[in-house]
Amino acid sequence: MVLSEPYWDHHIPLPKLGPLQSRLVTAFVALVCFINSYDGDFVFDDSEAIINNKDLNPDTPLSNIWKNDFWGSNLSSNSSHKSYRPLTVLTFRINYLLAGGLHPIGFHVLNVALHCVISVLMIDVFAILIGGLVHDGRGAKLSLSPKASFLAALFFASHPVHTESVAGIVGRADLLCALFFQLSFLVYCKAFQGGDKKFSVLWIFGSILLCAVAMLCKEQGITVLGVNAAYDILMVCNLNIYELAHQLLSRRKSADIGGLVRSGLLMRLALLFLGGSFLLYARWRIMGTGPPSFTEVDNPASFAENVILRIVNYNYYYSLNAWLLLCPWWLCFDWSMGCVPLIKSATDWRIVWPLLLWCCLMGLVYQALCSQDSNKRRTLTFGLVLLVIPFLPASNLFFRVGFVIAERVLYLSSAGYCLILAYAVGFCSCHWKKHKVHYNVGKNLADRGNQSAAVKYYREAVRLHPKYVHAMNNLGNILKERNELKEAEVLLSAAVNIQPDFAAAWMNLGIVQNSLKKFDKAEQSYWNAIRFRKKYPDCYYNLGRLYADLNRSIDALNAWRNATMLKPDHSLAWNNMVILLDNTGNLAQAELIGKEALKILPKDHTIMFSLANVLGKQEKYKESEGFFLNALKINPNVASCHGNLAVLYHRWGKLDLAKRHYELSLRLDPSAPGTKENYNMLKRKLELRQRTVG
């Protein structure tokens, strides 16, 4: 999965907090918004689900919660609503036991606490959906969108539409379902920690198990499997749905399907489908007598005789739900009993709202599928996925539901709305100021390799906003690569003066100063970068290169060792350690380091090459040959590898093999240093041997 930091993230008008601080702030906001419900009484549906529910009483056998519905009625009864939520009822029973009776404060406090936990976990969910699942060398998660995910979580924590779910005790079902929904998604993401081409079936089964737990809290939990599938398709496999559809319509199918099979996507989707089918079958069997029966009072639109009227009114309900997310002004605990009159004719002005809703949705879908900006496509697509998929069980599409509008069913769907809203804030913040447009164009051009054009836009961004440190840093990087070091140093120095904790700019400044032979300043810049970003393996690597240039071998080795401790797969740091130890005559230690590196990076041909050279110098010819040959299996077109293997065979006395690899090396690189001279020496030796034999 190839991901980049969303360009709009750092434009969001929020302070950049660390992971712990952002979580504490989110939990605090969630607490402040809903803590005033802690001393509420049992109200509305609480009377049936809690006060009159005998399953909460400790004298009732615990096994009853597995036989009865959410309201305490036997599931086989015709009057049962078939709401099978035993784990939610179990938490009510625990509240009852802990409080020694029906005291509402404990019930309310737990609801508020659950909302705080869910809001905090939303930071991780949003971070993955916006920026992907990224880890450092030690396996710790990194967020490419810290501000965007924080803002979306704040929106979720404080959204008024959650009032019914949090302040109403029966809303516990939605809260617990959302919690295990999140955990199922996060566990599914864990399946890909080993890289894009590797996945753990065990974690996938764990995700399906947590989906089952979510369903035992509320039926809506099954929808997490749809979100998991969307994440796999769009993020892990990085499929562009629009392009894929175009290819399929063009009948270019074979390569695409083959790629999907090789990536394991079809297998994972099959596991999700089979798991979901099993859970749905089990749920249907538990329902016993079939679906619940509702009256016209509960859901009048579903009883309309005309199919067209049913469709129009269902869509009107959707538009009202959307309005509650957008402007939660009309909150109500019960929308039945004629609160929403049916639309019965085309002249009813309310028909405008469904049309407006679908225009907005189509606009979002178009942007999500067809935008040239991959970050925009990804964020909007996942926003729509989170908005729509959890809402499907309440949509009347698959079965009749027992309500007109229920704000509690928007608890999970609101996460999608919050994600889209956070993107809108970032997008507007980014584009309100002209200089940021130039920055974005410059970044896109640089990503495509058009550095000359990118320089022009970055310069304009800096001209319009002289304190725009990200533009300075990116421009300085391009100038550094073009060897325009003086100007690069000026820009990067200005960036760190404006923002002293800009670690990346400090490191880039150090690289430029090192190239300018300003070694003391370069060393100080590197240490400044490390001071502001404690875990910075690339900076330790560059610091090691500086020390190597200054012949401070021990310091260089220590710096590279730090880089590999922070990022165990830092190939360049490992390789440089082996080469430095080789050059300083510490062959035994170089061998140990090389073999340690290959345990972590078993297919790194550059480390194999360096280790083979070390072993050859120790006259361990057989072992050295093995590493050379393995390196050539991975990358057979490296002239230096053929050349050094030829030298090994030359020393070893295997002259015919030496001749073959000298020739291969010269064919790949006729100007390879020393190879032609060694080859001529070998030819003279072979000619002498022939004359001697003759």
TrEMBL record:
Keywords: Endoplasmic reticulum, Membrane, Repeat, TPR repeat, Transferase, Transmembrane, Transmembrane helix. GO terms for molecular function: dolichyl-phosphate-mannose-protein mannosyltransferase activity. Residues 290-362 form the DUF1736 domain. Pfam families: TMTC_DUF1736 (PF08409), TPR_16 (PF13432), TPR_19 (PF14559), TPR_8 (PF13181). Its EC number is 2.4.1.109. Its main location: endoplasmic reticulum. InterPro entries: O-mannosyl-transferase_TMTC, TMTC_DUF1736, TPR-like_helical_dom_sf, TPR_rpt. Pathway: Protein modification; protein glycosylation. One of its GO terms (biological process) is endoplasmic reticulum unfolded protein response. PROSITE patterns: TPR (PS50005). It is found in: Endoplasmic reticulum; Membrane. It is a multi-pass membrane protein. TPR repeats lie at residues 435-468, 469-502, 503-536, 537-570, 639-672. The chain crosses the membrane at residues 112-134, 169-188, 200-216, 222-244, 265-284, 351-369, 381-403, 409-430. Belongs to the TMTC family. This is dolichyl-phosphate-mannose--protein mannosyltransferase.
